[in-house]
Amino acid sequence: MKIGTMLSDVTASLFKKPVTQRYPSERRKPPKQLRAFLVWDPESCTGCGLCAMDCPAGAIEMIVIDKKAKRFVMHYHVDRCTFCAQCVHSCRQGGLSMTSETWELAGLDRSSFDKWYGDPLDVELAMGDEAAEQT
Amino acid sequence: MQTLNSLFALLIFPGGLSLLAAGLLYEWIDRKLLAQFQNRIGPRWFQPLADVLKLLAKEEIIPEGVDRRLFIGLPVIALAGGLTAALYAPLWGFAPAFSFQGDLVVTLYLLSLLTLCIGLAGANTLDRFSLVGATRTLTQLFSYEAPFLLALLGPAIAAGSWQISDISAYAQQHWMVLAQPLGFIVILIGLMGKLELPPFDAPEAETEIVAGALTEYSGRGLALFRLGKGVEMVVGLALVAAFYLGGAGNPLLFIAKTLGLLFIVAGVQSLLARMRIDQTVGLWWRYGALFVLAQWIFILGQRVMG
Amino acid sequence: MIEERKRERFTVPIGPQHPALKEPGHFQFTVEGEIVTEASVRLGYAHRGIEKAAEGRNWVQNLYLVERICGICSHIHATAFSLGVEQLAGVEAPPRAQAIRTLVAELERIHSHLLWLGVAAHEAGFDTLFMYSWRDRETVMDLLEELTGNRVNYSANLLGGVKFDISQAQMEAILQGLDFLETRTYHYLEVVNSDTLFLQRTRGVGVMTRSQAELLGAVGPTARASGVVRDVRVEAPYAGYIDFPVHPVVEKAGDLEARFVVRMKELLESYFLIRGILAHLPEGEINARLPRRIKPGEAIVRVEAPRGELLYFIKSNGSDTPERVKVRTPTICNMTSVIKLAVGHQLADIPMILAGIDPCFSCNDRSVLIRRSDSEQHWDWETLRQYGNRFYHANAK
Questions:
Q1: What is the ipTM of this complex?
Q2: Which end of chain A is more exposed for a tag (fewer CB within 10 A), N or C?
Q3: Band of the pLDDT at C85, cuts 50, 70, 90?
Q4: Chain A: nearest CA to B34, how far in angstroms?
Q5: What domain range includes position A126?
C-alpha cells in the first residue's frame, strides 16, 4: 500500500522538457507511409473509373473527354476525401498515389479543396461543362 | 489621513486590487507547476486573467426558481469575505494592515465564509448537481475545519496570543515547522481541503457532478467566485508561511516561502487521486484529528514541563 | 407515533451531455443522499444508420464505412468485415496478410487499453496517470502511423488482404517502441495495484460475480475480470491467431481493480504476441483478388475487439452491394451490467463503474428490435441457442 506511486514520474518531469510539440513552430517530418494528398498520373490512366466507383466518399470524379485518345480529367474533391488510399489499390495501372508531404490541408476558401488533374485545355473544357451543368 | 491610509490598504495594497492580481498570479503558478509535473506545457501567464475578463463579459443567466437576491449576492459576499480576511493576514512580508486581539478567529471565520457561500449558492438552485455539490462542500467544510483550526492554534498557544501580528512576530524567532511538525502536515493538507484542490476536490468533481455547487453560475457570479478562491489561496499560504515557516520580514522572503509551499501543494495535487466524500470525512476525523491532538498534547506537555 | 423522515431522493441524470461521458448516452440514477437506488439507461444518441447505409454501397466502399463505426476499434471492424466477405467469396487472404492484420489489431488493442487507462484515471480524479498514459499512447500511435499511414482509422485492410507490407526498419521501430511501452506498462500495473488512494476507489467497487457475469452476458475484459474465461481469440481463432495463439488473461475478483489488472496484463500479452509475429512473419503475398460481385450466402464472423466479442452477420445476394450487414458490438452486452451494478453504490462510484466496462457509445447504437406489422416472432435465449447449435452442426466445415 503506497501513496504517491507516480512520484518517480513526477520528479523526473521536473527536469525534462515537456513532450508537447509546439506546432506550428515545431513540425515533425511525417513518415513516408502517411496518406495525404492524392496525386494522379494521367499518362497511365485507361479511364476504367474503378477509383471513382470504389471511393467510399465520392471524392473522385472521372470526366471523359475522349476515351479513344485517352483524354481524361480527374476532379478530386479534397474536402470529401477520407485518405483511405483505396483508389490507389483499385487502380490496376498504379496511376494514383498519396504523397506524404502535403498534409496541412486547411484552407480559407473552397477553391483550395477542388483539385483538377489533367491537360490544362481538357481541364478547362471539363470545368466549363460542370459550370454549364450547374446553371 | 487615517481614512485615506485605510482606504488605500483596503482597495489597492495590500488588499484589494493587488490581492486580486496576486490571486490570479498564484493560480497561474499552480497550474503551471501542475503542468510541469505532468510533463506538459500548461497555460500562459495571462490565462487566469483572460478567464476572469471573459467571464465578466458574459451574460449572467439566472435560473428559474432561485432566490434572485441570494443568487446575485452570494458571490459578492464570498469575495468580500476573502478580501476582508486578507486585511488581518501578514501579506507581502509587511505587518497586517489592521490588527486587534482575537483577529485570528475572525480571519478563520472570514475564510470559511467563502466555502459557506459556495455551499449556500449550490443549495439555492434547484439543479441536482448543485445540490449534491453543496452537500459535499458543506460536509467537507465540517470535516477539515476542526483540525485546520486546531493546527492554526498550535503556534498561537506557543506564542501565547490570539493576535496574528503577535504570532507572526513570535514565529519569526522560532521556526514552528521544526517545533510542531505534525501541525505543519495537518495545516498543509487542511489548506488543500479548504481550497478544494485534488485530492479533496469531491465537491467540484468534474466527472461526477459537472461543477458541483457552481454548476448554474455563469458570467459575473462565477468570475467573483473564482477570484475569491484565488484570494483564499494567497491568504491561506500567507498564514501558513507566517505561522510555520518563520514568518516573512520582507517581500522577497514572503514570495519565496509562499512559492515553496505552493510547490509542495502542487506536487501533492499531482500525486494523488480524488477521494470520495465519505473517505475524505473518514480521513479528516480519524487521522487529521488524531495528528493535531497528538501535537497539542505535545505542546501542552511542553508548557507544563516549563 | 414516530414519523419517518423522508430522505432526499431525486434522479441524477448522467448524460446525454456530461463530463463523465466522452460520448452521449442517457443514464438516470435515482439517488437517496449519495446512494443509488435505481438505475436506467437510454441509448441511441449516436445512431447514424450505418447498417442501412451499408446496403447502398458496394463491398469495397463498405469496408471504409464499417471502419468508421468506432474510432478506437476501427481496424477490428474492418477486419471482421473483410473476413466475412472473404468467407462468402470463398477466398482466403494469404498468411502474411493475416499476420499483418493481427499485428495491427494487437497494436490497436494496445492503443485502446492505454486510452482507456487514461480515461478511467481521469474519472477517478487521477489526472497525472491520465496524462502519462496518454503520453505513452503517442508512441503506439506513431508506430501505427509509420506502419499504416494514419494514426486513427488505419485503413490497413483490403478485401482479400492488407494494403502495405512491413519493412525491416519498421519492424525494428516497433520492437523499440514495445520495449519502452513494456517498461511503462509494468509501472502502471504497479500503480494500479498499489496506490492507496486509487485502490480506495477501485478495490471492492462494482463487484460482479462470475454467475452474474454469465447471466448478464458480459464479454471481453469486463467478463474476464470476473473469472469468465471467454476470449474469441482462444475459443475460435481467426486470422493470425491460428498460428500465433493467445493466452487468456483472467482475474477472479470481479471488482474494478480486477478490470484494471486484466487490461494491463492484456497489454503485456499483446507485446509478447507482437514480438512473436515479428519474429516469425510468414513470407508471401499481401493480398488476394476478390471478385466485385460476391456469391450469395450468409456469413457470421466473431472477432475479439479490445472491448469484447464483436459479431458481424453479412448476407449477400450475388450483387456488388450487400443485402444485410448486422453489427453486434461488445459494449451493448456490457451495458446492462452497469445498470445492475450501480445499485447500492455511491454516486461518486458511478463514473468509475461506467468507465470500467470501457463503454464505446458510438459502437453500440444498433436497433435491436424489429417489429413486423403482420407477425411478431419472439425467441427466448434457449430457442436461439438451440437454433445456433443446429445451424453450426449442419454447416460444420
A1: 0.90
A2: C
A3: very high
A4: 9
A5: 30-134
